[in-house]
């Protein structure tokens, strides 16, 4: 005798058939996620699921089944719960494919917080696909909410089944979310066959499956506790470097303005093998850079990761030292902290007025919350800017307008200013922005996008040169750190193959002094990482160093640049960190201090190490 489950008034389906349908839906959805992760390779998808990593594929299916049953229990309907599940998985897979295509890295759980950034998402994936996705999601949500409302009419017996299902699935999802707990049973099952590759999330997802990689990047401590971490150890480290700090030559000298400019996707395309052009789009940039301290900066990411580079530049803490699951400190770490030392807090203690400017909205990467924690006095966004001019069809506020905003702030010469500008003009997409393009690239790949990008950075380059000229009219000495956050994701696989990975992670940077007094002014081929910017600027400008900056300054001499999988030591690049004993001591001191601040007891804050 078959039991029947009433879903609609006029239809009934047997339990075995429902179970088979749910299992098929979960298996197909997991295959789809793996297909998207493997860049639409059906062969790799099938081999992963049924040949190479069957155990991990089954574990992923079990997690998806729990999620599916949660939605069904919530809706009180097998049909509508399954439909919403299918739409959710379809969008997630599409997003993963898009991110892999543009940035060669997978979707992380924390990326889901970007779902409300409708304007940016529309610009990234195109208006038509965006509208289609939004409409489908909206219609599904309407029916889903309607199902939840109508579920109150279910029989008492079905309500008990539904509530029990909700409680059980919610409990399981909470337990699954604790995946990185070493005692988690699901994690232990994965560990039997999984080879985790934390230094490369792309390979991590490939080797453990989309679901394995996604689970691996759920909540985790920012850093693991180093050996010998204690109040005494921190005291010894802070005392050592505080003793090495010398007083300023002239304590009465007027404090300079300090400007940080993180330029969206600013880089030299002709630095890459396989890319040439009819003329140099960075001509104006090099006219400035070749007269001051400049060179290449190592970016953590290709095609994205803006907030992480910004985090490093402002805090002088390195992403390389974090656990690999700490993918975006701006959203995962900083908003949860009451205080984090940075160049902002340092200058605020020296009576600077600190302003952040971003010609876009305030919600991106939780910047509004992050800037509050860092201690900025004000945050000027696209809504509050005075200058909002755009170039031709470019949807973003121009760099020239952003620089005018900075210059307006510098008119107040009663107080030294720290201004942190994050530009948007050169953000993707790179087509249909300009009616007349003066640059023509030669080489393999996306010529239309590369040509448009060259025009974009040419305008940006000209705006920077004009800005430095205008700064000469500012009474107070002004120091500028300018850098590109990452390369744009416009280069073909052929071009990527012609260049090693380091080349795809290097952007331009310069430091500029209106008085021309930087100590290494004539060095134009420096290699650095963004967490060195503040200590390097202070050192070269004869500003008062801190114990923390003294530590970083010494570390930079030994290890000029590093990110996960990219380490520059002894004038060469390595994929692993190879250090001498003296280099190891500096690196470990730095790691201990960073742990103390982001995951420890913040003992170093009480030792005047950052002031």
UniProtKB/TrEMBL annotation:
* Xref: Pfam families: Sulfatase (PF00884)
Q: Pathway listed for it?
A: Cell wall biogenesis; lipoteichoic acid biosynthesis
Q: Which Gene3D superfamilies match?
A: Alkaline Phosphatase, subunit A
Instruction: Domain (Sulfatase N-terminal): give its ranges.
Output: 256-540
* Recorded superkingdom: Bacteria
Give the InterPro entries listed for this entry. Answer: Alkaline_phosphatase_core_sf, OpgB/LTA_synthase_biosynth, Sulfatase_N
What is the topology of this protein in the membrane according to its UniProt annotation?
A: Multi-pass membrane protein
Any one cellular-component term (Gene Ontology): plasma membrane
* Keyword terms, alphabetized: Cell membrane, Membrane, Transmembrane, Transmembrane helix
Tell me where the transmembrane regions lie. 12-33, 53-71, 78-95, 124-148, 160-177
Extract the SUPFAM superfamilies matched here: Alkaline phosphatase-like
Q: Where in the cell is it found?
A: Cell membrane
Q: Which PANTHER family match?
A: LIPOTEICHOIC ACID SYNTHASE (PTHR47371), PHOSPHOGLYCEROL TRANSFERASE I (PTHR47371:SF3)
Task: State the name under which the record lists this protein.
Answer: Sulfatase N-terminal domain-containing protein
- Origin species, per record, is Candidatus Enterococcus dunnyi
What lineage does the source organism belong to? Bacteria, Bacillati, Bacillota, Bacilli, Lactobacillales
């Amino acid at each position: 005798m078959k039991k029947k489950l009433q879903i609609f008034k006029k239809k009934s389906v047997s339990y075995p058939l429902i179970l088979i349908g749910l299992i098929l839906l979960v298996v197909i959805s997991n295959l789809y996620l793996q297909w998207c992760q493997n860049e639409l390779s059906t062969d790799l998808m099938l081999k992963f699921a049924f040949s190479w990593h069957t155990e991990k594929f089954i574990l992923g299916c079990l997690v998806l089944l729990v999620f599916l049953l949660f939605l069904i229990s919530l809706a009180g309907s097998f049909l509508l719960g399954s439909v919403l599940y299918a739409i959710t998985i379809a969008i997630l897979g599409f997003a993963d494919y898009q991110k892999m295509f543009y940035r060669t890295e997978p979707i992380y759980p924390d990326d889901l917080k970007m779902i409300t950034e409708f304007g940016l998402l529309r610009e990234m994936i195109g208006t038509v696909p965006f509208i289609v996705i939004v409409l489908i999601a909206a219609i599904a949500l309407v029916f889903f909410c309607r199902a939840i409302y109508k579920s109150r009419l279910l029989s008492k017996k079905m309500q008990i089944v539904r509530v029990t299902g909700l409680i059980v699935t919610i409990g399981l999802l909470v337990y699954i979310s604790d995946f990185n707990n070493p005692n988690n049973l699901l994690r232990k099952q994965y560990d039997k066959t999984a080879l985790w590759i934390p230094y490369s999330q792309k390979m991590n997802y490939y080797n453990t499956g989309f679901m394995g990689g996604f689970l691996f990047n759920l909540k985790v401590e920012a850093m693991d506790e180093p050996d010998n971490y204690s109040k005494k150890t921190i005291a010894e480290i802070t005392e050592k470097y505080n003793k090495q700090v010398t007083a300023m030559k002239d304590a009465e000298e007027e404090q300079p303005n300090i400007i940080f400019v993180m330029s969206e996707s600013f880089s030299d395309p002709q630095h890459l093998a396989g890319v040439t052009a009819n003329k140099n789009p960075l001509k104006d940039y090099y006219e400035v850079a070749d007269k001051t301290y400049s060179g290449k900066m190592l970016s953590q990411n290709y095609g994205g990761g803006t907030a992480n580079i910004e985090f490093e530049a402002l805090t002088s803490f390195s992403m390389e030292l974090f656990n690999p699951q700490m993918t975006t400190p701006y959203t995962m770490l900083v908003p949860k902290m009451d205080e984090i030392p940075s160049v902002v807090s340092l200058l605020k203690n020296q009576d600077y007025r600190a302003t952040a400017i971003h010609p876009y909205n305030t919600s991106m990467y939780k910047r509004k919350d992050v800037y509050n924690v860092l201690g900025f006095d004000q945050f000027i966004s696209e809504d509050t800017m005075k200058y909002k001019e755009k170039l031709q069809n470019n949807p973003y506020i121009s760099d020239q307008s952003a620089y005018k905003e900075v210059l307006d702030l510098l008119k107040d010469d009663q107080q030294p200013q720290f201004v942190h500008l994050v530009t948007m003009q050169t953000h993707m997409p790179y087509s249909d922005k300009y009616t007349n393009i003066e640059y023509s690239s030669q080489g393999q790949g996306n010529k239309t996008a590369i040509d448009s990008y060259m025009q974009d950075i040419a305008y940006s380059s000209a705006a920077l040169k004009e800005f430095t000229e205008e700064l000469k009219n500012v009474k107070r000495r002004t120091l500028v750190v300018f850098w590109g956050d990452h390369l744009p994701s416009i280069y073909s696989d052929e071009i990527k193959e012609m260049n090693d990975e380091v080349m795809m992670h290097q952007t331009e940077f310069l430091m500029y002094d209106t008085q021309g007094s930087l100590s290494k002014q004539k060095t134009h081929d420096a290699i650095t990482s963004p967490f060195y910017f503040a200590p390097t600027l202070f050192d070269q400008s004869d500003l008062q160093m801190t114990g923390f900056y003294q530590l970083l300054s010494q570390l930079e001499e030994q290890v000029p640049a590093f990110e996960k999988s990219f380490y520059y030591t002894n004038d060469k690049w390595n994929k692993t960190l190879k250090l001498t004993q003296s280099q190891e001591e500096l690196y470990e001191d730095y790691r201990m201090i960073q742990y103390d601040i982001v995951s420890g007891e913040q003992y170093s804050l009480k030792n005047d190490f950052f002031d």
